[in-house]
TrEMBL record:
This is Calmodulin-binding protein MPCBP. Residues 38-48 have a biased composition (Low complexity). It comes from the Eukaryota. SMART domains: TPR. The gene is gb23967. Residues 1-59, 111-131 are annotated as: Disordered.
């Protein structure tokens, strides 16, 4: 009877077992009738009625006698009614009288005992169990509402402790976890709300480590949560891990099954949670939440795993994203993963005349991708010009970016021009576009940097030096490639000591892990100044740094920007070239073997091997090595120059072939002074003295402006 009466009260009606009790204008706390206006004021929360222990006890006694409830259950009902009417402080006074530990001790035996095997006893046990569950529901809900009351009063720490006591009570009552069946819905709702609320309260109280523990406990313990509740907790936990600014310790191994993945940091744990949420959606267990994919995009981008992100974007069911939007997002992922061809193919589909041919962002991305490759430079020019044409005239920033990419694509296209006249026109147009881009956006350092590179490659070192200084001013000297550019321009002007001072100053301002390219420039400056032993020491320092990075981060280093990396292969190759120039053949061979062990098939290594054969007068072996290098990299300029130089020494019948290789090398790299020099020798042997003079003059001019490292390596 008591349980049935309590259920009738719990259903939302204010009718008791003997008619309308208490009446609508009756306050169970104050124990007296109110006027209609007073009752309305109480419901709206504007009443400031004072609560005293005498009135609470009087109302409590009435409930216990009328509904046959015990002390805690009666107070739970009274407190809930006051909470629903907005009397938070009054509800809190009522809830304070509930002894949770005493309630746990009474409820634990009846809810923990196993059902009897006989049918008759089983029915009686189920009835008793239902009544005990309802009593537990009343008491636990009261403590949950007490926690909510404290939260509304701004007492987040006390609220969290009360909410935690609810979960402790549930664990004490259901020691084997909450069973999946035969659990009263009201009780399950209270438990679910408490599990969901606790970490939020800890966050409000500033106890972030407690919040982390509560999140993990919510997801790992047996609370019998439904999919929607679990989904909300997982999403909030992932957001907290990503943006909370608190470093979480890895989950305890004791809570993991054998062979399962254990996250090592916040980022990995957040990614794992977000992937679980996506899987739930794909299985139809929850609704689609676009913010989950947004958070996963951020997390995977942070750790450089954009190829994984592309896979998840491809798995999203059709109809959720417009296909053009999906193509653009996928192209961004593949571009970030250095798969430019896949990214460009997607953009071509997007920019088709039947899709979105005037999508400015897609046009700009396509132009940017094309600007990094000689083969796609012509396509890039077309995309950039379309972007310049379609962009709104008032949007100076976007127009500046379009002109910037147009200039870069034109510069790339000029490198493969079929004639000197066409190359000159393209170079002029490239500089014009870059200057116009800079005029629209004076403070864009990337435009200034690319202008400096273009001026330097066109042998205008004065303008290149000015742009390099402007770039350093624009970035505040915080970008190392600006200092490297300045050093290379100074080295091209034969001002090696000044270039070394700039490099040393940059090293002092650069983090240890990012010093690789600067150390490589310093080593090459030592070589240019004919200081071989100091160059060897510089290379040794660089090698130590690269090997330390490899041990610290492994073969894949996502914590250092690509432009700040120097591979161990490059260092061994540089040492091999240095020892070869000093005629230390044994040391050079050892360094080459080290380089081969890291990259077995490399045009650079094969070319160095050919040089060693050539010095030892093993002509056939040298030619074989050079041709093997070209088979690995068809446009490897040093190998073309070496083949042309070697064939020019083999007699008149080889001169046309030598001239062909040298001309092709100059087509790919017009500023290669050695190609001009050997082409001059070919012309001299062939009797074309005027052409030979022009080639020697070009080689001499280029020697006076030859940097220690190619500008395009920046």
């Amino acid at each position: 009877m008591a349980a049935a009466a309590a259920e009738e009260w719990d259903s939302g009606s204010e009718a008791g077992p003997t008619g309308d009790w208490p009446p609508p204008a009756f306050s169970p706390v104050n124990g007296k009738a109110r006027t209609e206006s007073e009752a309305g004021a109480s419901v709206s929360g504007s009443s400031e009625a004072k609560v005293d222990d005498g009135n609470i006890q009087e109302a409590e006694s009435s409930l216990r006698e009328g509904l046959s409830l015990n002390y805690e259950e009666a107070r739970a009902l009274l407190g809930r009614l006051e909470y629903q009417r907005g009397n938070v402080e009054a509800a809190l006074r009522v809830f304070d009288g509930i002894d949770l530990q005493a309630a746990i001790q009474r409820l634990q035996p009846s809810l923990s005992e196993k059902p009897l095997s006989k049918q008759s006893n089983k029915l009686r046990s189920d009835s008793s169990n239902s009544g005990s569950q309802h009593a537990a529901s009343l008491v636990l809900e009261a403590i949950y509402l007490k926690s909510m009351s404290l939260q509304k009063l701004g007492k987040a720490m006390e609220a969290a402790k009360q909410c935690k006591s609810v979960l402790y009570a549930v664990e004490s009552i259901f020691q084997c976890g909450i069973p999946g069946v035969m659990v009263e819905q009201k009780l399950q709702d209270t438990v679910s709300k408490s599990v969901e609320l606790l970490p939020e309260l800890w966050k409000q109280a500033g106890a972030y480590q407690e919040a982390l523990v509560s999140y993990r406990r919510a997801l790992l313990s047996q609370w019998n949560l439904d999919d929607e509740c679990c989904t909300r907790i997982q999403k909030r936990f992932a957001v907290f891990l990503l943006y909370g600014g608190v470093e979480a310790s890895p989950p305890s191994l004791a809570s993991q099954t054998e062979g399962s993945f254990v996250p090592r940091n916040n980022l990995e744990e957040a990614i794992l949670l977000l992937m679980i949420l996506l899987k739930k959606f794909f299985l139809g267990k929850t609704y689609w939440d676009p913010s989950v994919m947004e958070h996963l995009t951020f997390a995977l981008s942070m750790c450089g795993q954009t190829s994984v992100l592309a896979k998840h974007l491809e798995e999203v069911l059709p109809g959720i994203y417009p296909r053009t939007e999906r193509w653009y997002s996928l192209s961004l992922c593949y571009f970030a993963a250095s798969d430019n061809e896949a990214a460009l193919n997607l953009l071509k589909k997007l920019l088709n005349k039947n899709e979105s041919p005037n999508d400015i962002m897609a046009l700009l991305l396509a132009a940017k991708i094309c600007s990094s490759s000689y083969h796609f430079a012509s396509d890039g020019v077309e995309y950039a010009r379309r972007a310049v044409k379609d962009v709104k005239s008032l949007d100076g920033h976007l127009k500046s970016i379009a002109l910037h990419f147009l200039g870069c694509c034109l510069a790339k296209k000029s490198k493969i021009a079929s004639s000197d006249h066409q190359r000159s026109l393209l170079q002029t147009e490239a500089l014009k576009s870059l200057n116009e881009a800079r005029s629209l956006d004076h403070h864009n350092p990337e435009v200034i940097f690319d202008m400096a590179i273009e001026y330097a490659e066109q042998q205008n070192m004065h303008a290149a030096l000015k742009c390099a200084k402007d770039f350093i001013d624009a970035t505040g000297g915080s970008v190392s490639k600006g200092w490297r550019l300045l050093s290379l321009v100074l080295s091209a002007q034969q001002r090696y000591s000044e270039a070394e001072v700039v490099t040393d100053a940059a090293l002092d301002e650069t983090a240890k892990w990012e010093q690789g390219p600067l150390l490589r420039v310093r080593a090459k400056l030592k070589v240019a100044q004919s200081l071989p032993m100091e160059a060897v020491e510089a290379y040794r320092g660089l090698l130590a740094l690269v090997q330390a990075q490899r041990k610290a981060y492994g073969t894949v280093n996502n914590s250092i920007e690509e432009e700040d990396k120097v591979s161990e292969f490059e260092v061994w190759q540089g040492l091999a070239n240095l020892y070869s120039s000093l005629s230390y053949w044994r040391d050079a061979e050892i360094c080459l073997q080290k380089a081969k062990a890291l990259k077995a098939y490399s045009a650079t290594t094969l070319h160095a091997e050919g040089k060693m054969h050539e010095v030892c007068e093993q002509i056939q072996n040298a030619l074989a090595a050079y041709f093997n290098a070209l088979s690995m990299e068809v446009e490897h300029v040093p190998s073309k120059v070496s083949i042309g130089a070697l064939l020019s020494k083999q007699g008149p019948k080889y001169l046309p072939v030598a001239r062909c290789f040298l001309s092709d090398a100059l087509r790919l790299e017009p500023t290669n002074r050695m190609a001009w020099f050997y082409l001059g020798k070919v012309h001299k042997h062939d009797g074309r003295l005027a052409d030979a003079v022009d080639c020697f003059q070009a080689a001499s001019m280029l020697e006076d402006s030859d940097p220690v490292e190619r500008f395009r390596l920046l």
